[in-house]
């Protein structure tokens, strides 16, 4: 089994982690910048071991955050939005990449970035994790990553998986491109609402605006209403559009909080096809947390393997042998070399993808069994890495 890449996403010691396995010592330099893949060589400079408590953040277990009040407004230069309607002008404009170089951060309270507009489900997740935080909207996922890197905000809360729609692949890819650490996660039950202008009945609607995923999750009611579906980048943005344009036969699918923020009526609640619709969010920060053994932790890694019979099975076996539970397995094509010809003669026609494998396992890096598992993953009985990054 040949390990081509190892990503470890939050470390007890920032920058370098050492693993001891028998008489073999492996020193891995952890950075978030993918280099050229070579056999027997790490292909990534990645950013630390992702450790976070696995207990979902709930109303009975909320982190204590100093300072700040629950708010959707941000006093950043160039961020305030000019709208003709008074209540809309009080809501912040999402940060874009061009805003990030000039926006100050006074550090007076905890500021949390999320993708979307005020009223987005991501903002609800941020407020669930940090009830007293100042939320900062960003126009895209990458802007939220950059906002943390540039010290504009303290944390970012970004979706990674939905129980109906599956994984958010864009954020998996961005984890490899940015030098951030996973320091927690929060689970949010998504309750879609059908929204309309005040006084409008749902039977009057001819069009409904929302994110494509929301349409897929609310197909039954939309089919019954026989409305035209109009796509939007996010659900809160759809609610804002309906409010600002004032067209009575156009509704939106968004949260109840978005209805309150944008002055809309909730025409129907919990309209999703599946009642249990849960999104899992990652909490990202500049610095890793120091994992302990006081509770169950979750660690995230990513790696790539050379092709061969049973190589993925052998890689995963290092966790099973130590009674470590795997909470999540995700694969993504390795973009540096997505296709490989099957035979070495270069005459074969069959090709297949090389993959990165993302693994979440339930163990703290403070535990010897987790250290030995990662040491075993990099130094197995069948091979020895001869180009270890020092």
UniProtKB/TrEMBL annotation:
Gene3D superfamilies: 3.30.70.260, Periplasmic binding protein-like II. Residues 111-286 form the Prephenate dehydratase domain. Residues 54-74 are annotated as: Disordered. It is an enzyme of class 4 (lyase). Keywords: Amino-acid biosynthesis, Aromatic amino acid biosynthesis, Chloroplast, Lyase, Phenylalanine biosynthesis, Plastid, Transit peptide. SUPFAM superfamilies: ACT-like, Periplasmic binding protein-like II. The keyword Transit peptide applies. It is found in: Plastid, Chloroplast stroma. Residues 300-390 form the ACT domain. It comes from Senna tora. CDD domains: ACT_CM-PDT, PBP2_Ct-PDT_like. One of its GO terms (cellular component) is chloroplast stroma. Its EC number is 4.2.1.91. GO terms for molecular function: arogenate dehydratase activity; prephenate dehydratase activity. It comes from the Eukaryota. Its main location: plastid. Pathway: Amino-acid biosynthesis; L-phenylalanine biosynthesis; L-phenylalanine from L-arogenate: step 1/1. This is arogenate dehydratase. One of its GO terms (biological process) is L-phenylalanine biosynthetic process.
